[in-house]
Write a structure and sequence with these properties.
Blueprint: E1 31-35, E2 55-65, H1 74-87, H2 100-103, E3 111-115, E4 128-132, H3 145-149, E5 157-162, E6 173-178, E7 195-198, H4 216-224, H5 288-300, H6 310-315, E8 333-335, E9 342-343, E10 348-352, E11 360-365, E12 368-369, E13 372-373, E14 377-382, E15 386-396, E16 399-410, E17 422-425, H7 430-434, E18 438-441, E19 447-449, E20 459-462, E21 468-473, E22 477-478, E23 488-497, E24 505-512, H8 519-522, E25 532-534, H9 543-546, E26 549-550, E27 563-568, E28 576-585, E29 592-603, E30 607-609, E31 619-621, E32 628-632, E33 642-646, E34 652-656, E35 663-667, E36 675-682, E37 688-695
Parallel strand pairs: 1-6, 2-3, 2-4, 2-5, 5-7, 9-16, 23-26, 30-37
Antiparallel strand pairs: 6-7, 8-10, 10-14, 11-13, 11-15, 12-14, 15-16, 17-29, 18-21, 19-20, 20-29, 21-28, 22-28, 23-27, 23-29, 24-25, 24-28, 31-32, 32-35, 33-34, 33-36, 36-37
Amino acid sequence: MKKNITRISILLFLLLIAPRVAFTQMEWKQTCGIVQPPTTHLLKPDTTVNGDSVIIIPTVFHILTEGGAENVSKTQIFYALQFLNQDFNRQNPDTIGIPEVFQQLRGNPKVEFRLARLDPQGNCTDGIERIYTPLTGAYDNFLQLQPNFSWDHTRYLNIYVMKWIDIQNSPLYGGISYLAPVDSGQNLPAQWDALAVVYGEGSDLHGIPPESPNHLLGHEMGHYLGLQHIFGIGAGCSDDDYVDDTPLQDSPSNGCPDFPHISCINGPNGDMFNNLMDYSACTSMFSEGQVDRMRTCLAQNEWRTGYWTPANLAATGVDTELPVCANPPVADFGYGNYAGWLCAGQPIQFYEAASVNANSFQWEFTGGVPAISSDAFASVVFADTGLHSVRLVAGNSFGMDTMEKMIRIKPAEVYYTFNINSMTESFEDPVFNQQIPQWILGGKEWSVTNLASYSGANSIRLDSGFKYFSVFFTHTFDLSQIPGPGRKLVFQVACGLSNAGSITGGLRVTWKRPCAYERQIMSGDSNGGAECGALHAGDALLPDELKTATTNAAFIPNSSQWKTITLEIPDTLTGEIQIGFDWGNFTVTNKLKGLYLDDIRLISGNTGIAGSASGIHLNVFPNPADELVTFDLGNLTALQPEIFIYNSTGVLLRHFSSLHSTLLQIPVDEIGSDGMYFYTIRTNDQQFFAGKFIIQR
């Protein structure tokens, strides 16, 4: 997995007195936001703060949580703070790849971030505040942070850790920060002066320990102390970051470019893609000019000058080594993954999140293996589904405290039955339907419906005009059972759109590994590496590509209002996967009148799609059937077809060969009881066709 979050595409710019939002294009990727005041920040630095000494900044982490995976542990906070201090003291270990010409320009900000030891009321604190609030996942939550939770922002650096960050129709920030002017004068209200990061695999707040520094906090802190992106406000060679020793750069870097990477006629050395204010996967340095700019901001910006005064360092308790707080801990813990979908039979990570300085932990996991643990971080497997009690007793020399939570374990992933060369999700199995994993970020749940279907009785439906994301995942496909190369994902779609309104989104189709439910993985972010990906070019299948009807009423498709979508499965993809369908929309809309999906299937490279192959006539009717099932083979008869009929568990029931008539009629009593059946047709030139039918007497 790449160590750096992909922060490209959506940049939040708040200009002049009336803030507004500008973004380049919609993407399903974590992004970096900037809250930017008027143009006074363009002034170049003319002074530095406090000589060459280290500047100490009192820091408090506010963990906004509802008790799940976002309730990160104290140990995770310590790692994040360690990485931040390494970035701001030229001590980060991942600098070996910086080209020599840029090594010579590396600056040392000499800024140390220390967890506050005294709160605004003078009480002992560990500098970490846990706040149970639905704002961790609420609309437009960024602007509610500073007014509701901030300690005096002129005395403490307030860092917010959240499940997701939203501001003005932009929900995919991995981090966001106020871009401080380097001089005095603030032209935006104080509520904009905040810095927030999302917990998870795109930040330094994931894993114990994290594999390597991510530098997300270092990047956002650069903005907080006056640094632009190295490529400027937007993109193009006319944009500058107003730092003399960083070369002009046309656009954000992707991956880790080879040196030199030339843009904006900036040869021979090209882009400084290792700079922490770029978006590359190998950022690890500030330049000397950037250091001057940040120290100038600390010297001149009235929202920053109060941090490092001797009086404030004493008042916040960071000027000396204070004893630990003489309080018993407040027990708490986090667990699981971003979606909160916890699979039976799979390891689930639990981690203590006690306040103050707990040093003993006693866990009890009802129905778990192990059933008890004394580790701060415990990995537990639950074999049974349903609610389970988890209890933590945290203690220190001053006392102990208990926290108990009920967690819900979902069924282990089920597998689709392999029938010759096809595996199908048809939404006909009521047990499967109840176990469909979903992830909702501001949107609405998908629902299995009998209002319409391409075949059989059911399909899955969404009628939401909400923002932002409504995602469901299929159960598990085992690619080792599907012959390749040339495997395909095929599904049926019916989509009704009105003429009025607009949709800034579409349907993103992705793959991921079973029981993997972190945010980047669920959205198919390319930063997920070998764990996930999109199955199409671009961010999404656009609404007009999906549209099968125009209507101003609630859309219920008829049999002619469906279309087939076919996507390639990469030949390099192996193992077990789930397919995700992510309807995303970045604004509220009433344009979508109904979206239906049916017959989601993976087929081998030599399998045709029944009813859609070029030049092939094939029809199976009626469907559902109550007396006879008729196969109209048309011109397939000349290819000596064989027909195989299977039940829903993959058992072969009937086999027909030596077919000379274009019509084959089979009494349903010769097939089986009411239910769903699959068929495959194989021809003498090794074409395969797959489909299903329902018997319903």
